[in-house]
Amino acid sequence: MNTDNWVQTWGAAPQAPDAGLGSLDGCPPFADVTLRQVVRVSGGGRHVRLRLTNEYGTGPLTIGAARVGLAAADGDVRRGSDRTVTFAGRPSVTVPAGAPMLSDPIDLPLAALDLLSISLYLPELVESVTCHDPSLDTGWLIAGNAVAGGIPPATAAPLPVRALISAVAVRPTAPGRAVVVLSDSLADGFGSTPDTHRSWPELLAERLIRRGGPAAYVVNQGISGNRLLNDGLGTAGLARFDRDVLATPGLGHVVVSLGHNDISISFAARDDESGDGFLAMFPGSPVTPADVIAGYLQLIARAHERGVRVHATTLTPDEGAEIHTPDGEKARQEVNEWIRTSGAFDSVWDFDAVWRDPARPGRIRDHLHAGDFLHGNDAGYQALADSVDLSLFA
């Protein structure tokens, strides 16, 4: 593994602004404004590169100026770390509708788990903001060109989504490999404490970094509400797999933790088909366990063609959640049995066994869920991360 190659160290799967949880509703327009966002990288490196995204934009996106640096307290940038971001040597760029944009390499050494501050100045109105909804890291909308740093003023508005940034890559100081998690809200960190980096992929990254070795780069490509087979909250897993996973620089491992929403939505009580209820966010026909399994086999085949190992997590319990039904529970168990026994994946991570209550196997243990019987809390996500066998990442 050549250390001159790029390895992705952070990611946020792009979504259309109307294909998320609605966090942008009521947000001020993006025009003559600076977006300042903080991301925590996993593994470090000696140079950094940004991937900006206009992939769901309806028109060209103009970045008037951009800077990065190490994040300081209160939204400021650590003194001496501030760097100008350029594109083909220029300090501004126009990103075509439907396209991403890679920055030039930036001479900014990053240690593992460093907090990176990214500021983008948008001089013109952005009518369709490619984003990741929600963001669990505090961000700011600052009037005018504020890329040069400083604590955001009291007039700054909160930025509730991850906007226009989809990836951070580094040139590692030692050989590195990326572990990419394709998932839904389970990996997206829904239910964890904001600004604490307690999603299970981030906690797994901490374990891998403490252990040492090349697989210290964990990329979280979870989308809350995402499904494997149908669009809705984000593009379906099968459709976004090439962009969000296989195109990852330095890819070595894929973790498939997707399919729960396919099952639960398919078997949910259909009492709000008028289009006004929760299920209206999830178009497409109901699917069966066999459909989900066929989707898994497609992901495995496409990853193995690239020489990439594929790991799978079992589907976690949801009894007590509003979406739970007895038929859905039967289907979840059928999918889990196939994941455990088929031998199709290179390894199986039994998240169902980690979370389930021995007295009620269809329900998450009370101290591990976020109060909704569906998502983890900080302790729940820590238990998932702690259950992963690190020897799988030699």
Automatic annotation (TrEMBL):
Question: One Pfam family name from the record?
Answer: Lipase_GDSL_2
Entry's InterPro entries? GDSL_Rv0518-like, SGNH_hydro, SGNH_hydro_sf
> Which Gene3D superfamilies does the record cross-reference, listed alphabetically?
SGNH hydrolase
Going by the entry's taxonomy, the superkingdom of the source organism is recorded as Bacteria
Q: Where is the SGNH hydrolase-type esterase domain?
A: 184-383
Protein name (database record): Lysophospholipase L1-like esterase
